[in-house]
Amino acid sequence: MAARMENVEEIRNRVILGEFGVTNVHTTDFPGNYPGYDDTWNVEKFQKNFRIDVVHLDENSMEFDMVGIDAAIANAFRRILLAEVPTMATEKVFIYSNTSIVQDEVLAHRLGLIPIKADPRLFEYRNTGEESAEEEGSEIDTIQLQLKIKCSRNPRASKDSSDPRELYLNHMVYSKDIKWVPIGNQADVFADCCIGPVHDDILIAQLRPGQELDIVMHCVKGIGKDHAKFSPVATASYRLLPEITLLEVVEGEKAERLKQCFSRGVIDLEDINGTKVAKVVNSRLDTCSREVLRHSDLKNVVKLGRVRDHFICTFMCSCYKTPCKLTDKNANIPFTVA
């Protein structure tokens, strides 16, 4: 072997961030590459090493660690979230009246990107091959929404006021003004559902007295692979877990400068016998900027790396689903993380 045995573990398990490049970027743990290592894949070994740890979870975002997998699996998970999970989104916009300053095309584009609160599992995919039904939908494949609003002057406004919020009524058009118009028996089937925009405070347009909007929207089921408006996540990303190792004791003014080279919370200063000594507190917070390598007296006291099989996955949900629902088996994702 070209590598010494003491370096094999580092080559296999760590990505090293150097001053002029990144090393150990390729996966090398395939069968027969390292004498004395059994790298044949088996289910039992994978189940033993693989785990998922949920670090943060709320209504809109989720951060979790996937440990014991290759980058291809982490990337597959990310791409499934972006392109394969179905949602409901506006497909057709019928503008009957638009006297605002926003052009019809721009207005239709803005409406199409508003996330819709509706469970796509309760709807069928629209059959685009039916020419006769191009502009009409049925209760099993279409949600109809309406935006009808007109701006007028506020008769109770003060004569000296210059604030549009006081002078005009309905001058700010928000997503909360979009109303659901049931088709067929949808009113009975979805009586317990609150169909409409996910967020009520999305600004659509601004109006002035006499201007109005009269729009009907048809929402259909789709996936992000067809159009980004169907993507259930705003962002979906992953990164390798950073690893920072101090090769020697760093103290005094040198420790202060070392702390400034990393993100807040990565390096802390510990008081030992009246001397400030640097220590690594939480390398997870580091952005791996390699700022420390610009300092000639600091670059040799620290070693920067990333754990090859430890992925920090983060995504923000933009559809009706919570992050947990996006990652269960009902969302057609082959993992259960919560």
UniProtKB/TrEMBL annotation:
Gene Ontology BP annotations: DNA-templated transcription
CDD domains in the record: RNAP_I_II_AC40
Keywords (A to Z) from UniProt: DNA-directed RNA polymerase, Nucleus, Transcription
Keyword Transcription: yes
Compartments (UniProt record): Nucleus
Pfam families xrefs: RNA_pol_A_bac, RNA_pol_L
Any single Gene Ontology cellular-component annotation: RNA polymerase I complex
SUPFAM superfamilies referenced in this protein's UniProt entry, alphabetically: Insert subdomain of RNA polymerase alpha subunit, RBP11-like subunits of RNA polymerase
Any one GO MF annotation of this record: protein dimerization activity
Domain DNA-directed RNA polymerase RpoA/D/Rpb3-type residues, every copy: 61-319
Family in the record: Belongs to the archaeal Rpo3/eukaryotic RPB3 RNA polymerase subunit family.
Name of the protein this chain belongs to: DNA-directed RNA polymerases I and III subunit RPAC1
